[in-house]
Amino acid sequence: MSGRCSGITRDGTRCARSADGPNGLCWLHDPTRSEERRRAASKAGKSKPSKEIQALKVRLEDLAADVTDGSVEPKVGAVVNQIINTRVRLMEAERKIRETQELERRLEELEYALTQKTR
User: Fold this and answer.
1) Which domain holds residue 72?
2) How many C-beta neighbours within 10 Å does residue 56 have?
3) Cα(110)–Cα(88) distance, rounded to whole angstroms?
4) Which long-range contacts (C-beta less than 8 Å, at least 24 apart) are formed by 49-58?
5) How many domains does the chain have?
6) Tell me: the pLDDT tens digits for 10-26?
7) Tens digits of per-residue pLDDT, 24-64?
8) Phi-psi map region of 72: left, alpha, beta (phi>0 left; psi -120 to 50 alpha)
């Protein structure tokens, strides 16, 4: 079945998305897909800037201050900075993996919707 979703949005208007299932609802309004939406929302919540990034920023600021005031040797500060940079690169790799997984999930949903429309 194709056409406009028969679901109602939070502001009380009719949903403008395409209905991709046999029940006349889009992915957001289809009650049979609530678990998928919950998982997607959980993943999205994890993709927000983390507390770990904030902690690393504070650590770098403290390190810079410690090197400047002489309480940490510049060579030691450079090594700590390299370790922090390595952690940042790992975090970026994790973000890219999550992003790829999300895109794969969305592609699967689009493929599913397409197969429903061609039936």
Assistant:
1) 47-117
2) 16
3) 33
4) 50/91, 52/87, 52/91, 53/88, 53/91, 56/84, 56/87, 56/88
5) 2
6) 888 888 888 877 788 88
7) 888 788 888 888 878 877 766 655 667 888 899 999 999 99
8) beta
